Amino acid sequence: MKRLQLQRWSSSVLSSRARTGGRLQRHLYSSNRFQSTASNPLPSESDLAGEQSTASSGSTPFLKFTKRQLPSPPVQAARESAKLAALHARLYLPSRLPLETLARCLVDASADPDPQFNNTSLALLGNDLLSNYISEHIVCTYPRLPLTVIFAAVYAYIGPKTLAAMVREWGVEHAAFPGGEVDPGLLQFKRVAPGTDISAEPIRGTTRPNEDQTTWRRSITSSVVYDNEYGDPVMAPKPPADPSGSSPQPPVTAEQASCSLVRAVMGAIYLHAGRLAAKRFFEQHILSRHLNLSELFNFSQPVRDLARLCARENYEQPVAKIISETGRKSRHPVFVVGIYSGKDKLGEGVGGSLVEARSRAAVAALKGWYLYSPLEVRVPSSTEEPGAAPWKPVYVDLGEVIV
Amino acid sequence: MPLKGIRTVTAARNGVGAFILQCKRLDFHYCDWAGSSRGMVSFLKHSLPAFAKENPQIEIRVSPRPHKHPVIKGHYINGREKAVCVRNLEPEQILQKANLLKEASGEKLKRTKKPVTSINESVRGIWSPYHGDLRTI
Amino acid sequence: MRTSLRQVNLDVIRLQGSRFLYVCSVCRQEARPRPFVARQFLRNASDATPITERVRRKLWGTDNPPGLKDPYGGEGVFEKKFKRGQSAPQEDESAEVTRAAGTENAVVEDALPEETPYEPATTWEGLQRVGHLGRWSDLPPSEADAYNSFSSNRRLTKLGHVSLAAHQTAVELCLMHLLKKPLTSICDVAEHEKPVFKLIWNCKIQPKSNTEWDSALVYPDKETEDALIYIFEQIGGAQQAAPEANAAAEDAEAAELEDTQDRDSAQEPRSIPFFGYKYAKDRGFLALSLNDPVTKFAFLKRFSQLTGQYFPDPILHSISSVGQVIDHIKTELKPKPKKLADHLVGDDSLQSLPNVKVFVKKQKPWHKDEELGRKKLIDAELRERGLVE
User: What is the rounded average pLDDT for all residues in chain A?
Assistant: First the structure.
């Protein structure tokens, strides 16, 4: 992909500055709407700059009249919002990303159902970018991680809870209710009514076949095919009932709205400032967060797993040996157990009983195996740079042992 | 399934990647009539443009508050706010107060006994009595 | 000399002592000699040779050592002043000092009366009288008493009037350039008669190049040109017109007479500035250059005379064309905003910053509700419950 093509695409994606769809307020205030300076249906790339200048000097009296009726703040309001400009500077966003696009990123689909004014398209692109970057980073850095741990790690980096926390740490406030008069610097979404049980109804309409058969075994490998990047079921896309987009969208939680904000910002940066800026944003805001990967493992039978692993890798069978002990007859005995494969010590654990110490030692040995990381990590997306060296395939292990 | 992943959330480390200033908004209130706002009015006239330009990441709001002493109010990312009354202060002193609010984290002031805290593991490790050269008595 | 100084000093002190109770505190403060002066008196107050002098004498071994008499800064200002008047009693002074001050002293001596030994007066009799002692109003008015103000006493504040004044000045100066007369002599005529002013008003200025003032003037017709040149021939041109024909000289005298009449009429309060003309017809004068310092001075002087607007030095320095003069007056005439919010809203450096928002009104809780989108919910709820119509 060349950057030029990206730019052209970006302009076509973001061209929907004017509200062209058949909308409620268009019916109501059709005479007024056509007086708008920003009613150019499909401005070309060269028009974008000029349009921004006209947007700032837009016809305010007409705006005052219809602001309440608009589902989201008008495009012109983005230039006047101090909150939005401060957010732009606080996130170190590139200057090529205009304030209008940032304002659009803050409008959730539940606030404004028009896909030309909400952040759905940007969030879709941003989500793909985020999951691509984080999964390649995790897989290349820790090539032996089991699939479940990869899912958990991706969830920890770009899961909805993390993204919601990020939005909180960015200092983005939530609007009480979306509308045209609301400051465009606030995150706008229609809230779920208080007291609603979100997890009450079972998940239906996923892409997985035979989803009603709850007793069937769902293998972890099948979730690579059917599930999303965290291993959660993916909802199948519903056929759009109303193409004009005027059907009311279901309300969302603050967490979901925050997710779409971060993803949309990522997508907007990619479109406006290019791949390098998007990658920098990803490294600064997401990869820089702290995650201790060794805490993501939950072994049920580590000793058996270790035995299977040694068998798979043609090592000698692991043997547990006491390294030292104290107070065997006392109330608080401590055993230090090491697991050896031949002459090599694979792991060591401390426990109050011999079994505990052995399983801890096995866990340590398994983590030592799984958390291997090569010294020089290179991700596939680094070859997208202009003068990058050709891609050399990295070693990726089989993953977890099958028991 | 023998091995499961545990879902957690990554911890933010402000300043490791991007540094996000904790002060997100500063409100400047003044009174046009009262003499205690004299320094504040002068500050807003002359020093505020430079201050605002230095700190683009802070939203700055200037609004009158008649018949009250001038106040600078800082709003922070953790949801708290701090207000400083700047009555009868000179513009330079007000700039100091604004900088104070800008640099604050928004937390309540507390005494720091251990100035360095870390979520990283100790590099040196913890001493263990069960390892090393065991001596028999 | 030193004795006399000391006595003067003592007299002041005695004077203060005697009137101490009857002088108000402010006057007493002012009457008290200033401290540094007192210190200067004290330095050479005693007749005895100072210790530095004695040390010098000891070092040199003679009673008359070479070098400065007082190496620490010389004598005080007052002493020098006295010395200038009383060079005679200072025989002990070295010859060089008298030679250096020779000529000046000679001049001063002529003016001063004969030297008499100082004798403090005990009564006021025989002393020189200062002031009028209540009889000044009886004195006949002297020449210095009359005051003619340079400019009209009003400041023109309407922009149209200012441009009229600038146009008039430009036309006048063009004519003066044309006639090669001293430019500032136009200021002798504080105000023109109405027909003359109308002639000036009808003239246009089309500067061909930036520096040419004499060829910039465009007359509406030949008669106007002749009339204006005839009128301006007479202004301030008495000495130049003299070698010409007698008729011209008579004209000049007549013009002077007219001038005085003009001046008299200017004294009277003028009801309407510029005879009711509201604006200048022509805009070409704005492009005229003021780079020539003589022209610039003449222009600003005449302009100040006509409008009563003055220019501070830094502005004066930066002005290089007539347009800038008008621009400066425009900014001067703009009223300053009284409220800080108006000032901040008009401040470009603040408005250009996207993260600053200035509110003119006090921000109330409902402003916050409106901003968060909560207000319409509250409104709807209140309406639903019938609490708000």
Answer: 83
What is the radius of gyration, based on Cα positions, of chain A? 27
The predicted structure's pLDDT at residue A400: 78
- Judging contacts by C-beta atoms under 8 Å, the chain B residues touching residue C356 are 48, 52, 60-62
A209 shares its domain with A98: yes
Report chain C residues whose CB lies below 8 A from the CB of B41.
340
For residue B126, the tally of other CB atoms under 10 A from its CB is 6
Residues of chain A below pLDDT 50: 1-61
Residue C197: per-residue pLDDT: 86
Nearest CA-CA distance, residue A260 and chain C, Å: 20
Residues A180, A239: Cα–Cα separation, whole Å: 29
* Domains of chain B, earliest start first: 23-103 (3.40.30.10)
Residue A80, pLDDT score: 92
- Residues on chain C touching A176 (C-beta within 8 angstroms): 369, 372-374, 377
* Average of per-residue pLDDT across C132-152: 74
* Count of the separate structural domains present in chain A: 2
C365 CB near a chain A CB, below 8 Å?
Answer: no
Per-residue CA distances from B98 to A196, B22, B93, B95 (Å): 43, 14, 9, 5
Are residues A278 and A145 both part of a single domain? Answer: yes
My answer on whether A216 and A278 are in the same domain is yes
Contacts of C357 in chain A (CB under 8 A): 82
Instruction: Give CB contacts under 8 A, 24+ apart, made by A206-214.
Output: A206/A233, A206/A234, A206/A235, A206/A236, A207/A233, A207/A234, A207/A235, A207/A236, A208/A233
Tokens representing C144?
Answer: 């210095």
C341–B65: do the CB atoms touch at under 8 Å?
Answer: no
Select from A177, A189, A191 the residue whose CB has the most chain C CBs within 10 Å, as the one to mutate to test that interface: A177
Q: Find, in chain A, the residue whose alpha carbon is nearest to that of B134.
A: A324
pLDDT surpasses 90 at C160: no
pLDDT of residue C112: 53
Does the CB of A172 have a partner CB in chain C at under 8 Å? no
Q: What is the pLDDT of residue B44?
A: 95
- Residues in A closer than 8 angstroms to B8, CB to CB, are 152, 156, 291, 295-296
Flag whether residue B25 sits within 8 Å of chain A, measured between CB atoms.
yes
Q: What is the mean pLDDT of each run of 10 residues along chain B (137 residues)?
A: 89 93 96 94 95 96 95 96 96 96 94 89 87 71
Contact (Cβ atoms closer than 8 angstroms) between residue C382 and residue C388 = yes
